[in-house]
Amino acid sequence: MSDNALEIYLTDHMAGSVSAVDLARRGAKNNDGPVGQFFAGLAREIEVDRRTLEDIAARVGTQASPLKQAGAVAVERLSRLKIDHRFTGSPELSLLLELELLWLGIHGKRALWQTLGAVAGDRLADVDFGQLTRRADEQLAGLEQQRLSAARVALAS
C-alpha cells in the first residue's frame, strides 16, 4: 500500500470513527435501561478504537482530515433525520436502523484492522491487530443480539 493510499485509507476510517462514536453516544442518550447501557459501553469502546486508529495514523505520518471529519459529522447528523422516530413513525424502527448503521460501521472497522494487519510490516509490528479484530467481533456479537431483539419488536406484525 503506497503512503498516499494508506493516508487516504486511514483518514477515511478516522472520519467514520467520529460518526460511529456520535451515533453510539446518541443511542446511549436516547435509550433507557439495558439498551442505553449497551450503547454507552459501545461508545466507550469505539472511542478507544478511534484513539488507537489515530495513534496508528500518527505513527505512519498521517493526521486526521478536518474536512473528512466535518463531512462525516454532517452525514451522521443528516442521518438523524432519516432514522428519527418522527420520520420513521416508530421509535422501535429508529432503534433498529441505528443498530444496523453501527453494525455496518463495526464491520468496516473489523476490515480495517484485518487490512492493516496484512500490510503493516515493520512500522506497526507491535500493534496486535488480531486483538483489535477480536474486539470488533465481540462488538458485532453484541450488536447482533441488540439488532435482532430490536427487529423482533420493530417488525412484528
Question: Can you put this structure into words, describing what you see?
Answer:
With 157 residues, the protein is mainly α. Helix content is 84%, strand content 0%. It has helices at 3-30, 33-59, 66-83, 85-88, 91-119, 129-154. α1 packs antiparallel against α2, α1 runs antiparallel to α5 and α2 (33-59) runs antiparallel to α6. It is elongated, with a radius of gyration of 16 Å. The model has no long low-confidence stretch (mean pLDDT 86).
Q: Could you give a quick summary of the protein structure above?
A:
The protein is mainly alpha-helical and 157 residues long.
Structural class, by secondary structure, is mainly alpha
| Outline | elongated
Order of helices and strands: HHHHHH
- Span between N and C termini? 49 Å
Topology:
Blueprint: H1 3-30, H2 33-59, H3 66-83, H4 85-88, H5 91-119, H6 129-154
Helix pairs in contact: 1-2, 1-3, 1-5, 2-6, 5-6
Features:
84% helix; 157 residues; elongated
